Amino acid sequence: MRAVVFDGVVLGLQFGLLGVGLTLVYGLGGVLNLAQGQFAVLGAIVVALRIDAGSAVVPAVLTGLVVAGSVGLALDLTLMRPVYRRTGEDRVLLGLLLMLGVAFIIDGVLVWRYPIEALTLRIGGEPVDVLGVRMRTGSLLASAIALGVGAILVLFLRYAATGKAVRSVIQDEEGAQLCGVSPEKVRAFVFALSGVLAALVAVTRSMTSPVTVNAGIDFTILALIVAVVGGLGSVSGAFLAGILLGIVNTVSAHYIGTYVTTIVLLGAAAITIVLRPSGLLGAGRE
Amino acid sequence: MIRRAATVGRVGTPAVRAYAPVVVACGLVALLPLRYGDSRPMMGVVIGGVLFACYAVGFNVIFGSTGQLFLCTGALAGLGGYASAILSDRHGLPLMLAMLLATLVAATAGGLLSWIAVSRSLGVIFTGIVTLAFALAFQNLLLGQRDLTGGETGLVVEAGSDTLLGEQVAPFYVFVALLAGYLALFRALQRSHIGWAFRALRDDEIAAELAGVDVKRYRVLAGTLGSGMIGLAGALYAHSEGFISPSTFSFGEVDVLVIVMLAFGGIGSLLGPVVGAAAFTVLEEWMDSFNEYRLIIYGSVILVLFLVLPRGVVPTVQGLVERLRRRAGRPAAPVAPSPVDTLNPG
Q1: Which residue of A has its CA nearest to B69?
Q2: Which terminus of chain B has a smaller tally of CB atoms within 10 A, N or C?
Q3: Residues 6 or more apart from B148 whose CB is under 8 A from it?
C-alpha cells in the first residue's frame, strides 16, 4: 500500500507541474492553453533529437526547455495580442480556439517530421530505500525536480519582485497597471515560463516512461483537469490537486484495474469541481 | 437581436420570412446527390457533413443559446448510437422505439449534466471540464464494457439495414429531413417566449433573473433538448452506417470539429451550423490528398479564420448586408428587398 501511494505522489508531482503552467497562463490572461501538452512534447522531441545527435543529457534538456519557452514567448507576442484586446467570454473563447489551432500545427509538424521519435531518459543506479519502500532512482529524481521547481515557483511568486508582479496582475489587472506593473510583460514572461514548465514535465516523465510524439493531447487533458480541480490561478492548488489525483490514479490502478482507473480519476475530478466550483484552493472567481 | 417594426418592401408574412432560410438551405443541401449520388464514398462524406450539421445545431441550442459549454457532443451522440443499437439488436426492440428511447437516454444525460452545472452555478470553463470528464469517462466505458459494446473493435449494427437506411442515397435524405426539422425547431424556439428568455439570459444573466426569467429552468431545458437532438442524430447514424466504434464518437473526432464548425459559422446563429459544417466538410475532403500535412493545414486554417472572422461567417455577412442596405436604403427609402435579406433572424 505504501509503495502504491508513493508511486502516486511521484506521478502527482508531475501532474502538478503540468497544471501549474496552465493555471498561471489562465489566471493572468484568461487564455486556456490547449497546446500545453504539445509544448511538452515539443520539448521532449527536441531533447531526444539532441541526444540522438550525440549531445550530453543536461545540455540537451536545457535546449529543449529553451525551445519550448521561446515558442511560448513567440506565441504570446504575436498570436495572443488580438486575444488580449478582447474581454470576458469573447477572450476566453478566442484564446481557446487559437491555441487549439496551435496545438494542431505543433502536433502536425512533429508527427509529420518525427513520427516514431520518443524520449526515454534512463537514470542508472540501484533502487533507493525510502521509508521501507524501494524506489527507482528515476522516480526519485523526477519527484525531486518537480518538488524543487514547485518550491522555487511558490517562493518566487511570494517574494521575488517579478513574482509579486505576476500575482498582482492575477488579482487585479488594472490595479497592477496603476502601480506601474506592465501586464503585457508579465503575461509574456508567464507564457514563456509555462512552455519551459511543460517541457520540464515531459523530461521528468521520460525518466519513468517514454514520452511519444502523440502524447500531447493526454498531457493537455491532464493539465486541464489538474488546473481546474486545484483552482485556476492557484499554484499550490495545482500541486495539491496533482498529488491527490496522482494517488487516486495509482491506488485505483493497483486495486481495481486500469480501465476503471481513468473513470475513477475523471469522476474524482468532476466531483471536486461540483462540490467546490472554484477548485480546491481557488480564489472563488473564474 | 433587433426586431424592426418597419417591414415595408419585404416579401411574405413574418412567419414565411422566418422559415425561408431553413427551406432554402436544406433545399440547396438536398441537391447534392445530383452530383455525388452514384459514388458510395462521396455519399458517405456528404452524409457525414449533414450529420455534423445536426450535431452542431444541437450544440448551438445548448452553447449558442444559453452559454453552457458542453464538451460531450460526441459522448451524447455515442449514448444515442450505442443505446439504439443495443436496444434494437440485442433486445429486439422495433427500430423506431429503440431510437426514441436512445434519444430520451441522451436527453436525460444532458439534462442531468446541465442541472448539475446550473445548480452549482459552474461557469463556462467549469461546465466545460465537468462535461469533458463525462465524455472521457464514457469513452473509457465503451472500451471497457466489451461484452456490450465490442470494445475497441466496435459494433456492427444490424437493425435498420433492411430499411431505406441501408440504401446508398436514401439515408442522405433522411438526414436532410432531420436537419430541416432541427433548424425549424431552432427557429421556432427563437421566435417563441423561450427564445426571448434565452437571449435575455445570454446577454445579462442577472438582469434576466431580475426580470423574472427562471434562468436555471431555461438552461436545463436547453441542455435537455439539445442533448436529445444530438442523441437522435447519433442513433440515426448508427443505423444508417451499420457500424459504430468508440472513435466514431470520440472527443477528438466529434467535439473539436463541432465547436470549430459552429464558431466558424457563427455561434447562436440559425444557419451558422450549416455553413460551418459545409465549409469544414469540404476542407477535410480537400485535405485528404495532403494526408501528411493534414493537421498543419487544419491548424493554420483555424488560426486564420478566427483571426479574420472572430464572430463567424453568418453574423459577419449579416452585418455587411445590414450596412449595405442602410447605405443604399436611406436615400431611396425601402425599395427592393435584398436577396440575402432572408438570412436576417426574425
Answers
A1: A93
A2: N
A3: B86
What ipTM was reported for this prediction? 0.82
B75 neighbors B249 (Cβ within 8 angstroms): yes
Domain parsing of chain B, residue ranges: 22-261
**Below-70 pLDDT ranges, chain A:** 282-286
Is the pLDDT reported for residue B26 higher than 60? yes
Flag whether residue A71 sits within 8 Å of chain B, measured between CB atoms: no
Cβ under 8 Å to A: B residues 67-96: 67
Euclidean distance between CA atoms B72 and B58, whole angstroms:
12
Return the residue of A nearest to B295 by Cα: A108
> Which of A249-263, B9-23, B40-54 has maximum average pLDDT?
B40-54
Lookup: cell for B3 = 426586431
Per-residue pLDDT reduced to its tens digit, B141-164: 898 888 888 888 889 988 877 787
The helix-helix angle for A36-52 and A183-205 (nearest 10°) equals 60
Instruction: Check CB contact under 8 Å for B294 and A108.
Output: yes
- CB-CB under 8 Å, B133 with A266: yes
User: Which chain A residues contact residue B132 at CB under 8 A?
Assistant: 221, 224
Q: Which residue of B has its CA nearest to A266?
A: B133
- In this prediction the pTM is 0.85
pLDDT at B333: 43
User: What ranges make up the beta strands (E) of A179-273?
Assistant: 211-212
User: A280: how many CB neighbours lie within 10 A of its CB?
Assistant: 19
Residue B11: what pLDDT?
66
Q: What b/e string do you get for A103-124 counting C-beta neighbours within 10 Å, with b at 16 or more?
A: bbbbbbbbbeeeeebbbebeee
Size of interface A-B (CB pairs under 8 A): 116
Could you report the per-residue pLDDT of B181-190, keeping only the tens digit for each? 999 999 999 9
For chain A, which domains are there? 2-275 (1.10.3470)
Q: How far is A45 from chain B (nearest CA, A)?
A: 17
CB A218 within 8 A of CB A234: no
